[in-house]
Amino acid sequence: MYEGIITPIVTPFNRDNKQKINYNATEQLINHLINKGVTGIFILGSNGEFHVLSHTEKIEFAKRVVKIVDSRVPVFAGTGACYTGEVVTLSKEMEDIGVDALSIVTPYFIQPSNEEILNYYETIAKNVKIPIILYNIPKNTGCNIAPNTVESLSQIDNICGIKDSSGDMDNLKSYIEAAKDQNFDVLVGSDSKIIDGYKMGATGAIAGTSNVITDVVVSLFKLLKSGEVKKAEELQNDIDVLRNVLKLGTVPSILKRSVELANISPVGLARKPVNEPSEQVDEKILEMLSHYELV
């Protein structure tokens, strides 16, 4: 079972024109998160800027992360793409590297049919042995995985869960119901809905905000597990202070700047064409971090 708070880490880059991956900052960030109690490290997701990393960079980054994590928590690697063959190739390489599970987003830009989505995941699952977590984020991909598709896919042995970032609780509930008879975890991908998802039967969350306010998000889940729902609700509401600031720039520019200004790790800027936050936005970020006593 995948449960608790899994952090989809930002990918640290050097602050230069080439913006190459900063592995010292990567190690600093990962050690910070594990020491704070996250239950998994998820690389190459939306906040990890998978869409601007080359195949070679993804492979090298995964190798380094697996070595840094050293089996302290599971490592999830995003391998989704528009071409099934590309996903299969990258997924097999990630399996050879030693990641613990794959997170695979639906094809994006195009809008595949339910049958095409089913075939996409079935083909990938046949080519790897490690667990696969489906990734539903319709705002970015233009398509929502249908509940009956989830029901069919949940019957495949190594398809073990789904991250739902739709923000639609009826949609998340339909996934929980569709796979209730299978060994299949539903993970919340919308940080504002962690409590709602848990009450419905979600086993955990893949929460981007945990890059910054790790204590808040980890404590929220611990309180839920211990039945202290009222205290958990206070922390759930508190996450909105960060979420409101994240809207001030293109993903993941504000999240990365928050990690830096909180002195967690020098993760650098988002890759171009995303702009660096302005001084005025930095002031807003510092106000937010002050709220959490991180500066």
From TrEMBL:
PROSITE patterns: DHDPS_2 (PS00666). GO terms for biological process: diaminopimelate biosynthetic process; lysine biosynthetic process via diaminopimelate. Keywords: Amino-acid biosynthesis, Cytoplasm, Diaminopimelate biosynthesis, Lyase, Lysine biosynthesis, Schiff base. Pyruvate binds at residue 206. Signal peptide: none annotated. InterPro entries: Aldolase_TIM, DapA, DapA-like, Schiff_base-form_aldolases_AS. The active site is at 135 (proton donor/acceptor), 163 (schiff-base intermediate with substrate). This is 4-hydroxy-tetrahydrodipicolinate synthase. Catalyzes the condensation of (S)-aspartate-beta-semialdehyde [(S)-ASA] and pyruvate to 4-hydroxy-tetrahydrodipicolinate (HTPA). The keyword Repressor does not apply. NCBIfam families: dapA (TIGR00674). GO terms for molecular function: 4-hydroxy-tetrahydrodipicolinate synthase activity. Gene3D superfamilies: Aldolase class I (3.20.20.70). It comes from the Bacteria. It catalyses: L-aspartate 4-semialdehyde + pyruvate = (2S,4S)-4-hydroxy-2,3,4,5-tetrahydrodipicolinate + H2O + H(+). Its EC number is 4.3.3.7. Pathway: Amino-acid biosynthesis; L-lysine biosynthesis via DAP pathway; (S)-tetrahydrodipicolinate from L-aspartate: step 3/4.
